[in-house]
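queue> holo job accepted (manganese (II) ion)
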Amino acid sequence: MDVSDFYDDKGNYTGPVISDVIDEVKNYNPQADTDLIMKAYELAERAHEGQNRYSGEPYINHPVAVAKILAEMHMDQATIIAGILHDVIEDTPVTYDDLAAQFGTDVAAIVDGVTKITQFQFSSKEEAQIESYRKMFVSMASDIRIIIVKLCDRLHNMRTLNAMRPEKQIQKSHETLDIYAPIAHRLGMFNIKWEFEDLALRYLEPEKYRELENSVVLKRREREEYIENVISILKEKLNGEGIECDIYGRPKHFYSIYKKMQTGKSFSDIYDLIAVRVIVETVGDCYAVLGWVHTLWKPIPGRIKDYIAMPKPNMYQSLHTTVIGPGGSPFEIQIRTKEMHLVAEYGIAAHWKYKEGKKGSDELAEKLQWLMEIKELEQESEGAEDFVESVKTDLYTDEVFVFTPKGKVFELPAGSTPIDFAYRVHTDVGNKCTGAKVHGKIVPLTYRLETGDIVEIITSPQSKGPSRDWLSIVVSPQARNKIRAYFRKNDRDENIMKGKDSIRREAKHLHVEYNQVTNTKYTDFVCSRFNVASWDDLFAAIGYGGIRPGYVIQRIKERYPEDFVAEEEKSTLVKAPRTDSSKAVHIQGNSDLAVKFAHCCSPVPGDGIIGYITRGSGVTVHRADCVNMKNVDDRDRLIQVNWIDEGGSADNKFLVSLYITANDRKGILADVTTVISDLGLNISALQTRAPENGIAQISTNVVVNSLTQVDTLMKKLEKIRDITNIYRV
Ligand code: MN
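queue> job finished
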């Protein structure tokens, strides 16, 4: 789909408008408060007035299109309204409180959550990125509707991506493939997942995409005939047996074909380019259909999957079988009920269709073990990095299903060992595990579990606890976290000492005092920020390696910038340097004159310069472009001067004055001073003025020895987020 798809030849907008959204909602939710939806639209339209999308169309088209997608998924009223309003907190003066007052806290909280996810910058800065992931996963666990709106927002942006600059297209496509498609998969939202993948592929591999498109189109006729034939045979059989059903053919999406071709298969080898889907009334019918299918065509062994008895963790249910069809071509048949079908298409979002008006999150989280685990991980992990690594492992790996001897099913990441299983059953079972049996036979603890394994854990009260080696054997984040937790607890004293040492070393490195960063003033902040109960807990976590000391100091500095400016000034402010001026410049024709450097323009080696003969018969050196020099009446007093060393020398120090403006935020000053000191430069003065209209003003004098250093410094400063302007005074 192109942006142009939304406009006819005369340039009229043909995309969804608000009445389309309302019509759609009324279809499945006759009780919906359409006045309130209209009110949300009017607010959004007013708020976005004058804003345009990249394509040039009015901005309001975007949130309306997002709401339309949500309506197609039969989402509840709060989510539809949140979809219409999803960008107003981010882009307009409308606030959370405004939304809460007019549309309720549910809507406000969803919009707020979406805004927070949108603000995450998936920049190259590793830490920022990890923090972003963490927030996203946590918000997802707090109200799943947030991520549903976000996914629809992203879907519409991907559908209209061709209006963006090429480098943006590539960046957004990567992001979509790396983050949003796996999340959609995890939530069982396959329609969205497939569209994400196909759209991303189109921008990331345009050539291959076009090739695929062509080959798929070429064979379409042939395939359609084949499917029609299969469907009519099947229909006749099932109707004859008295089973009510709908049967559809389904083309595979491009990305999955692309993936298969990546594994070396050629296009013609990919027999399951199509699948046939049978939708029936009852679960009993599903199994009956499976039986009848197998009387018509031979099943391929190992390809029969019963996701009804054993639903996938994303709630997907269906029976799958691959059979050898007419003419010997294999194809896949999926059999499910209408309700299962809805879940298969919309995943978690299907939940709302039946739960209108209910607060679904908690109940839903129980169904989605995966979401529960995210919450658990958040509590058990040490620091954002650890948490995100855990969730990503969860997000990207396949799963195996194994059983206890009593028949209870557990889902584990593929590659899991009996130790992973033991910890999943219970922490104590894990800690006391000494061996394992699979199907009644003893296996090593490194055994990789397979779906269908019946696993029995042997425990011993005499067990001395887990072994450190286990950390490299287990694959599930839960098991790893629990083993780490065991060692954390048991080596606590040693870890506290190690942690204190690391903070001390890091503090020294960052030019702050150990006693200051560990000030009791920060206790509350530190405890809530790092999810610990005390400083000792934090030291222990650092000692264990769960949290990096630099990360802790950085967060404290960000939170309390005012405390650290003074500190940095004390340690890095130096007196204005002395320069042996006579050694730095050469004065044309006369080397006896005393030389001074002008304060108005502070020249440094490398700058174009000019001398001015003062009444006291010395020479003041200015920058050639200094305004004071342009206005000199008595041009005779100007004299040519040259740097003896244009590149500067380490012995001669000069002051350069910078004036910086920035969007005011916590930590901006600390960021500036960090950049300066990271370059090994000293600050001789630093001044900030109270921000006006949200713009912070910072003046600083820095000691340098050449223009090259000034340039490097300015380039580095420019890269700080929120800095808007830097100039030399
Ligand atoms: Mn948006």
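queue> The mean pLDDT is 80.
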